[in-house]
Amino acid sequence: MIDLSVIAARLDADEKLKLTYRLPISSGDGSVAYETRTARLLDISTECGLLYVRHNDEVIWVKAEEAVEILPDTDA
To answer: What is the pLDDT of residues 2-12, one digit of tens each?
Structure first.
């Protein structure tokens, strides 16, 4: 599991990071599939276990358990 306090400290130090996460997507037949996305990490809530990214011009939250990896954002 990702240590959110370490990631929060990196963001506080103005490090640009990107988050890869798995998002559950419900289909019409009731089954759940997972989509993997990567987006720039905007903020983090260590208390709530949430990470915030932008997707389609909206800020969304991602649960810590959905996070796959956090890497430096070399495109920033």
So the answer is: 899 999 999 99
User: Where do the domains of the chain lie?
Assistant: 4-72
Query: Looking at the whole model, is its pTM more than 0.85?
Result: yes
Q: What is the pLDDT of residues 9-66, one digit of tens each?
A: 999 999 999 999 998 888 888 888 889 999 999 999 999 999 999 999 999 999 999 9
Which residues, at least 6 apart from 55, have a Cβ–Cβ distance to it below 8 Å? 37, 39
Question: In angstroms, rounded to a whole number, what is the distance separating the alpha carbons of residues 59 and 55?
Answer: 6
State the CATH class of domain 4-72: mainly beta
Tell me the residue type at 37.
Answer: R
* Interatomic CA distance for residues 28 and 62, integer angstroms: 23
How many other CB atoms are there within 10 angstroms of residue 53's CB atom? Answer: 20
The DSSP call for residue 71 is: E
